[in-house]
Amino acid sequence: MTILIVVIVLLVTIGTLFMYLSPEFGGKPTEAAYKQYAKSKHFKEGKFVNNGDVEMEMSAGDMFKAITGMMKTIPNSVPGRNIETEKIDSLGIVGFGADTRLVWFGHSTFLLQIDSKTILIDPMFGEVPAPHPLLGNKRFSNELPIDIEKLPSIDAVFITHDHYDHLDYGSIQKLKEKVKIFYTPLGVGAHLQAWGIDQQDIVEMDWWQEETFEGLTIRCTPAQHFSGRGISDRAHTLWSSWIIQSPKANLFFSGDSGYADHFKEIGEKYGPFDLALMECGQYNELWPTVHMFPEQTAMAGQDVNAKTIMPIHWGAFKLSHHSWTDPVERVSQKAKELNMNIITPRIGEPIVLDNMVVAQPDWWRLLGKE
After folding, report:
1. What range does the domain containing 231 cover?
2. Is residue 14 part of a domain?
3. Distances (CA, A) of 122 to 159, 182, 227, 363
4. Dihedral sign computed on CA atoms, order 187, 191, 192, 197
5. Is the Cβ–Cβ distance between 203 and 217 less than 8 Å?
6. At what angle do helices 294-303 and 262-270 cross, to 10 degrees?
7. In contact, 41 and 186? CB cutoff 8 Å
8. Which of 24, 52, 110, 137 could form an SS bridge with 318, CB 3.0 to 4.6 Å?
9. What is the pLDDT of residue 342?
10. What was the pLDDT predicted at 17?
11. Which letter does DSSP use for residue 250 in this model?
12. Does any domain span residue 18?
């Protein structure tokens, strides 16, 4: 019993020290910043809130189910073998013309080239979406389309919220000298400043705010989700979706979000969208308000008035209890029922907006046959 107590005390001490000393957990907004956030309609009693004050509240029983569910063996929860990625190189990125092109890195990370600018969205290039490698499952692909060190200069980075699968400390450390400017929802800039990025290189935005960047129109739009990187910082930073619009293209990036009325409001205000990159994966009936089920993903694409949708937030990590192909199979079926255009490119496959042709639209089904 004495040994058990000593072990428990030691583990708690190590965990506490890790949380307070590890840079992975990021920074905290200043008191002056919180006073500014108090002016937002989405900030109440010291925390950011969803429209209608929708929250993700889980009972102790549901929390236990969620944790034990992740420990169980789930059929086909990860691919049977490594997902091969298509490769791109720095010269191919620098030499690309004025068309709009996207390259998916799996999950929610994108390289976007638009109006002769190179942009990254939710640049999570790490192997594990957690503050320590032992606390998460590894990426399904052994390699990325391009190593982060080989990326050329980046004009802008967009971040939707501060969860580890969207905001990665190691990736930011390798990227920060390459990037002109970072766009984040309110509060997320505190993490970037803690990691060595100058405040003048960070633009924090509230929902419905609009900025311009070298000919692009940037709009921060709502999402229904939550935030936090530690135990005590839940909802201390805002979460969002993003619109990036050039004279030739109008793109919507959903971020993480449950299905709600904000999609229709966004579509009515700013649609139609040439392409909507829509969250589809890591859902569960235990947290239905903050992640969409695949059928809702297709419906949300219809709500935002998208000409074409692409399911994201899948294909890279195991963060829920469903099989790894369940998201794309179900959203594809629902899109077919709704007569909606959908693209499902391979990781690393370049997609040019004017000709969104995918080489193998059902590539995940062929994975075991190659």
Report:
1. 42-369
2. no
3. 5, 11, 14, 24
4. positive
5. no
6. 30
7. no
8. 137
9. 98
10. 43
11. E
12. no
In the DSSP assignment, the letter for residue 138 is P
Position 219 in a domain: yes
Residue 165 tokens read as: 């699968």
Whether residue 243 contacts residue 221, with contact meaning beta carbons closer than 8 Å, is answered with: yes
139-172 pLDDT tens trace? 999 999 999 999 999 999 999 999 999 999 999 9
Is residue 315 helix, strand or coil?
coil
Q: Are 51 and 224 in contact (CB under 8 A)?
A: yes
What's the predicted TM-score (pTM) here?
Answer: 0.93
Q: Is 342 helix (H, G, I), strand (E, B) or coil?
A: strand
Q: Which two tokens stand for residue 319?
A: 């963060």
**CA separation for the pair 339, 237 (Å, rounded):** 37
> What confidence category does residue 135 fall into, taking pLDDT thresholds of 50, 70 and 90?
confident
CA 220 to chain centre: 14
Helix (H) or strand (E) holding 94, with range, is helix 90-94
The number of domains in the chain is 1
Angle made by CA atoms 264, 268, 272, in degrees to the nearest 5:
100
- Is residue 168 a contact partner of residue 123, using CB atoms and an 8 Å limit? yes
CATH number for the domain harbouring residue 280: 3.60.15.10
Is pLDDT larger for residue 233 or for residue 369?
233
According to the model, what pLDDT value does residue 55 have?
80
Residue 126 banded pLDDT, cuts 50, 70, 90 = very high
**2 or 273, greater pLDDT:** 273
Residues 256-271: tens digit of each pLDDT:
999 999 999 999 999 9
